[in-house]
Amino acid sequence: MPYRGKALLADSERGKGRNPVGIRFFFSVDPITLIASRTSIRFAQQALILLKRLCPWAKTSNSLGGVVLTRAVASHAAQLGILNTMASAVMNILQAAVDWMTFAFDAPSARAVVFGVPIGGHLFVEGLLLVVILYLLSQKSYKPPKKPLSKKEIDELCDEWTPEPLIPPLTKEMQREPPVLESAARPHTTIDGQEVVNFASANYLGLIGHQKLLDSCTSAMETYGVGSCGPRSFYGTIDVHLDCEARIAKFLGTPDSILYSYGLSTVFSAIPAFCKKGDIIIVDEGVHWGIQNGLYLSRSTIVYFKHNDMASLQSKLEKITLENKRAKKMRRYIMIEAVYQNSGQIAPLDDIIRLKEKYLFRVLVDESNSFGVLGRSGKGLAEYHGIPIEKIDIVTAAMGHALAAEGGFCTGNARIIDHQRLSSSAYVFSASLPPYLASAAISAIDVLEENPSLITKLKENIAVLWAGLSDLQGLEIASNPHSPIVFLRLKNSTGSFKSDLQLLEDIADRVLKEDSVFVVTSKRSILDKCPLPVGIKLFISAAHSESDLLKASEALKRVAASTFPNCG
Amino acid sequence: MITIPYLTALTTYFSYGLLFAFGQFRDFFRKIFDWWNSSNRQGYAPICLGNEDFYTRRLYLRIQDCFGRPISSAPDAWFDVVERYSNDHNKTLKRTDKVKHCLNLGSYNYLGFAAADEYCTPRAIESLKLFSPSTSSARADGGTTALHKELEEYVANFVGKPAAIVFGMGYVTNSAIIPVLIGKGGLIISDSLNHSSIINGARGSGATIRVFQHNTPSHLENVLREQIAEGQPRTHRPWKKIIVVVEGIYSMEGELCKLPEVVSICKKYKAYVYLDEAHSIGAVGRTGRGVCELLAVDTADVDVMMGTFTKSFGSCGGYIAGSKELIQFLKYACPAHLYGTSISPPAAQQIISAIKVILGEDGSSRGAQKLARIRENSNFFRSELQKMGFEVLGDNDSPIMPIMLYNPSKIPAFSRECLKQNVAVVTVGFPATPLLLGRARICISASHSREDLINALEVISKVGDLVGIKYFPAEPKKEHREDGTIKLD
Ligand SMILES: Cc1ncc(COP(=O)(O)O)c(C=O)c1O
Ligand SMILES: Cc1ncc(COP(=O)(O)O)c(C=O)c1O
């Protein structure tokens, strides 16, 4: 299409697609760009500029410019396919212009002296140049001939193409089935008809099966049904959602909060709402998959620092602030987990806040495993470190853990919350949390506030288990002494991730079968990029009795001793 | 394909232009004001970029009372909408204790399981006592109860696939499954109007994404041919695999997927079919088994069948149904299964009970009646709306029917006027729809009675006259429209 007009105008003897390399050497840079340029209008404009530079005589250049412009207009008109008849008229004009040029070059002014400068054959050379330019302009720019594939060729390609199977062949480790619970996931539950002590549920406060929660759920189900049948903006907002949001904000002392219908979606939707391409996020390498996914979806620049290593964080902050001149203009975040699901470590918020204030970063904290657990009254990481919660810009948490409900929330200042209500995709495009779960969360916070002793009990339980696990053979505790997740990792890795996991799974299976203690290993999805070692996780609950904890530690000790007979 | 009259297009552009200009004008003064105050935190880039939330501040806030209306009852055929008021020109809305009893034309309560149900609710409450509201653990750890196993069997059987896996949220189902199935070197061909969760999953996968024109199998074929012939970008290696993602019923259009054509094209070109039945499962088909049943597509031809329980089943969560191997693989690899809290046991029980009712396993014919009702109700309502001269999108049998409003000012007008007359409707505008194509969306439920619908039609007709959205007055004349219209996709 773009060359239709040109074909009409061009000299008849013009060769097709000839490579004007020789002439490229003759010219300097500008003509080469000219040759390369494809749009005829741009050709014309550039030629005009070039001409103006080459010919100081206003008259010549103007009239030549006129020629070029006429050409451009004509070619454009013809391109559009509107005025085919005009083309011949334009050719006449062109002819006339060329005639006029020949006359001008032959004129006696060829030997003239302008402002004391003898121009000699100057004009002639320039004219020649011009003609060459015009000639080149009329040529097709060089392009390797591109023939579209014929229908038959495409058919053949389609026939030949064989896709990979949708999923890879199943191997033995993919066939693993988790135990099936036959009663509620309380500290004592039933598996295969046998009562077991449950360390697999993040039921930190022991609220699973709490009568108050059950009552509020029952009455909510009777009034509201089970599901909400709509996203929040389309009649899926039920008054308990608003009450729950207000309750969470009041409990934490934040201005506002926002409910998500699933814990995992909270963080992976909230991050892309605030971080876009060009923003910088510095993140702990040990964060769980939900955060990793959020980071990936945000398309921001991601910088990892060593797991819970403040020196590494500082050096990364320093590096980014120094290296990046534009850093001041970008949104900058530090993303951490309060209690790391993948290691049981607790983030040193005091240091992080100090660094954040020094380097002017915002802080995002995922409190999924610390909300309701850390701090004197269970308000999480900020309370644990005695730091006002306003210092953390965005807090997200799952309600499926300590609160024994489901869903998640994000809390922060009003601006941050309101922004998510329109921009956070898992909030906007998903049905809202079933109202009975919102109601359960409200009751759970009520219970927590009325019984701070739950948190004390949880702390004691953690200490009891720690004491019991102090001299395990072959395994060591990798978690923080205050973390409700007790994380046991191998003292000596076998060297491969797979066989480590297999070893740990064997231990967990034996502990369950032989001692009726239900513990789990950390799982790694094929999408999970976490580099930390795998381990056995024990989720401690305030509802575990001392004998439960002793039973667990004895069982682990025994199985570890028989699995690692030679380890100290 | 929606045809929009020139005049309407012009006035709609004009309205948005005006809103935009006015918004910019206000922003200009706001900037000066802020500069005076310099209240922003020093040294930080603003957390919400000025242009990002321009739409929110200057367009959405004006009409935010039409969205997110809280309700204080179950989202049944009739529900209580909480009245709100604003003291600051709609910038913030405050709840009152007053409610308005309204007819619900907005919730996805297709089969009427949203409210307490004589069969489902007692069972859900029982399972609540047995299993508590949550397991506080992921399915792969300690979150699998006997109820979850039972649910998966029921779902697989209901959908018509060998196996199924359930998740706690429909959105996560899409966004966590797609990356497991496909990654770098793969190609996802997605309908242009697919749901945000699918887009999210596709983006998260790292695969190349191509889009085909909404519900246009011929264009899908072109894209497939072109892509297979060309291979991966730059390297031109052949694609590892191609997944075509479509929805059963498109929630903003009310259209049924042209599934038979899509399936045969995918078969021809060896692409895998991923079908999201969020809105169609339970709602259409003779026994409620979704678009495959309605359009007579063998479920064996659909490789991955996804759906959600938030709509027809009145619960929460989502499922994937497929071959035994596929499900086994997902259980091993899918992060939502490994890390996400398992679906709440009472919600699982609600789904099981709802499926039992639909299949008549509860010992009554309520399920069959519900299915007949939703179909009759939808077709009645749609044809009546069309007779009145509204421009209604979507196909017969689909319980979703968008009514085109176009003008941004008609969006709040329609919503508010209907609410005044106790009919709660959903209106949608930019950016959820293309700029020009603002609409109201009606979702019909099996729990609507004929009187409810007639009442609703009267109100909508009156409001339609008032707002001026009967774009095809009396009998629509096809030839008449042809010349004075712009075609839009
Ligand atoms: C100087 C100035 N300009 C503009 C506005 C309006 O801004 P907005 O539309 O954000 O309320 C205000 C309101 O506070 C103002 O004081
Ligand atoms: C096509 C489609 N897929 C997925 C979803 C998400 O489902 P849920 O609301 O259960 O998160 C929706 C919800 O609107 C949908 O329309």
TrEMBL record, chain A:
GO molecular function: pyridoxal phosphate binding; serine C-palmitoyltransferase activity
Keyword terms, alphabetized: Acyltransferase, Lipid metabolism, Pyridoxal phosphate, Sphingolipid metabolism, Transferase
Keyword Ligase annotated: no
Subcellular location: Endoplasmic reticulum membrane
Occurrences of domain Aminotransferase class I/classII large (ranges): 195-521
Biological or metabolic pathway of the protein: Lipid metabolism; sphingolipid metabolism; Sphingolipid metabolism
Annotated EC: 2.3.1.50
Broad enzyme group: transferase
Taxonomic superkingdom: Eukaryota
Cellular component terms per the entry's GO annotation: endoplasmic reticulum membrane
Family (UniProt): Belongs to the class-II pyridoxal-phosphate-dependent aminotransferase family.
Protein name: serine C-palmitoyltransferase
Organism in which the protein naturally occurs: Nepenthes gracilis (Slender pitcher plant)
Lineage of source species: Eukaryota, Viridiplantae, Streptophyta, Embryophyta, Tracheophyta
From TrEMBL, chain B:
SUPFAM superfamilies xrefs: PLP-dependent transferases (SSF53383)
Pfam families: Aminotran_1_2
Alphabetized UniProt keyword annotations: Lipid metabolism, Membrane, Pyridoxal phosphate, Sphingolipid metabolism, Transferase, Transmembrane, Transmembrane helix
Broad class of where this protein is predominantly found: endoplasmic reticulum
Compartments it resides in: Endoplasmic reticulum membrane
Transmembrane helix in keyword set: yes
The Aminotransferase class I/classII large domain, residue ranges: 101-460
Extent of the signal sequence: none
Domain of life: Eukaryota
Catalytic activity: L-serine + hexadecanoyl-CoA + H(+) = 3-oxosphinganine + CO2 + CoA
GO MF term set: pyridoxal phosphate binding; serine C-palmitoyltransferase activity
GO CC terms of this entry: endoplasmic reticulum membrane; serine palmitoyltransferase complex
Pathway: Lipid metabolism; sphingolipid metabolism; Sphingolipid metabolism
Bilayer topology annotation: Single-pass membrane protein
InterPro entries, per the entry: Aminotrans_II_pyridoxalP_BS, Aminotransferase_I/II_large, AON_synthase_class-II, PyrdxlP-dep_Trfase, PyrdxlP-dep_Trfase_major, PyrdxlP-dep_Trfase_small
GO biological process, one term: ceramide biosynthetic process
UniProt EC number: 2.3.1.50
Essential cofactor(s): pyridoxal 5'-phosphate
TM helices/strands, residue ranges: 6-25
Family stated for the protein in its record: Belongs to the class-II pyridoxal-phosphate-dependent aminotransferase family.
Protein name (database record): serine C-palmitoyltransferase
